[in-house]
Each structure stands twice: as structure tokens, then as C-alpha cells.
Amino acid sequence: MAQVFRILWFEDQLREISSQRAELVEQALEDHGIALTFEDRPVAHDDVLEEVKRRQLLYHDFDFVVLDYDLGGEVTGDVVAARLREDFGFVPMVFYSGNLDGVRGLRGQLLEAGVDGIHCVERRNLVEFLGEKLDELLHPVSRIEAVRGSAVGALAECDIELRRWFVARCDEIDEEAKVKIESRLDANLAESNSSRDKQWEKRGGDLPWKVERADSSHLMRITRTLAGTLGIDGLPEHEAFHKDLLEPRNILGHAVAERTADGLVVRSLHGGEIKPQELADLRRRMAQTREAILRFAVPKEPE
């Protein structure tokens, strides 16, 4: 996704709310073009807590934390909240239960654990509350500044992984096939009248060097050529890549937000307004294409 919002969820009976969580995902995509991802933890052992705390400190892996009170063991959600709060800083947390004495009981548990600044909600109201809270939190990351950054980042990530894939797989073909691929890359560059053509001519025959310096469009074309030579499917068509990732990046890269009497209005380079729903659609398209490219290029983790 061009933008991912990561939720750490402590709950030992997630099947009971799986369908409601799917609604949250659909709502975030529809309203903001942002993908919600869940990392579920059914237990809260010391090693689990230390792991997520370390990841948060090093990588800021989580944007939101949801905690059930009863985790099916000795450690309860209020204790987990106290253990996480310091290392998670101002990351929003939601504490819920269906067994305690409502919100008052939940707050009492947190008070005993010595932790505050955490939202409390009864289980029966949880999904509705999360929908409202997530919508509130996703609005800031839907500002054009954040969207622009995510668009640039999504394309850069795809470029990096495609280059890695190309270099790793290029040795699987013979020299004759390499020459044909390089000739096609040179032809594409000549058609585009790139300012880099002359310096590339001085490095004729050095295919990896050229691939490292190809722009996004040429990189996709040449990677598709190599994939076709190897008989490997899975990459998006170049037209889809251009329409759903490269073009949205270019549109958003030159968009600005103007203050008007009716609020912020996002305008493109040519002055046309980009409405919130259009912005969400651009993000969805970028996310889908990015995910397809990464599925193709990134090695799968061994099971």
C-alpha cells in the first residue's frame, strides 16, 4: 500500500471479531486509500512483549495498539499496557473487555497498573469505537504531504526490489539473450531522448550498470523482458504500472493544498481539484500495483 497503518492486537479469541475487523479494513481503504494490517498476539509472554517493544524502538512497527483484558493466561491486558506504554510513547492504545464492570472497571484496572492515557471501551462497542478512532487518526496521514511522501516511497521501494531481482536473475540467461535485453534497453532510452544517453554509450555492454541507473519506466520494461525470457509471470503490465503507480506519483508529487473558506483543497499541477475520494482512489491503485510488484520481486520467506 502506498500507506500502511499497522495495528498490534492482543486477543486470544480473534475469530469472534474477524468479520468486524474486515469491515474496518474496507472502511480505511474506501475512505482513505490506506491499508490496515494487523499483527495478532494471542499470548503476552515476556518474550513476546520484549520483541514488540524492541521492534517499536528500532523500527516504529506499530501505529496503534488494541488490548483485551482477558488474554487467557496469567498476564492481563492492563499489565501489558503498563509494560508497553513507556516504549510505545504516544502511540494510541485501546483497552477493552466484556467481563469487567464496563468502562469504569477497565479504568480501575489501568489505575491499579499505574498507567493512563489509554482509551477504554466495552467489547460490545469495540468495533464501532475503533472505526471512529481510526478514521480520526487516518485523516492526518491523508494530508497531501503524507500522501506525496508515501507515493514517492512506494515507487522507490518497487525500483529497489526490481533492480535486486534483475541482477539476481540475469545470470540465468546466456550471453546472446543478455545482448538482446541490453539492446532493447538502449532502444528504449534512445526513444525517450534521455539526457543520460551519451554517458551510457561509454559503458556499452555493461548491463548491470545500466539497470542500476534506469528510471522507473525503463526498469519495468527491461525487467518484464527478462521475466519473459525466463518464462516467469506475475509482473503487472507496463501500461498498468504507468497508470496505477508512476502516473499517480507524478500527480501527487506536484499537488498542493490550498486553504479556502471551506477548508483545505488539494490541487494538481494544472490547477484541477483532487477530491478526497479521488485521493483515496489514487492511493488504492498505487497500493495494489506496489503489492503485485513486491509479490513478484521479493523472495518468499521459507515456511
Plain-language structure description:
Strands 2-1-3-4-5 form a 5-stranded parallel β-sheet, with helices on both faces. A two-stranded antiparallel sheet has the order 6-7. Helix 3 (77-88) links the parallel strand 3 and strand 4. It is of the alpha/beta class and 303 residues long. The model has no long low-confidence stretch (mean pLDDT 87). The protein folds into 2 domains: 4-141, Response regulator (Rossmann fold); 144-297, no CATH class. Helices cover 58% and strands 13% of the residues. It contains 12 helices and 7 strands. It starts with a strand and ends in a 6-residue tail after the last helix. Helix 1 (18-32) crosses helix 12 (276-297) and helix 11 packs across helix 12 (276-297).
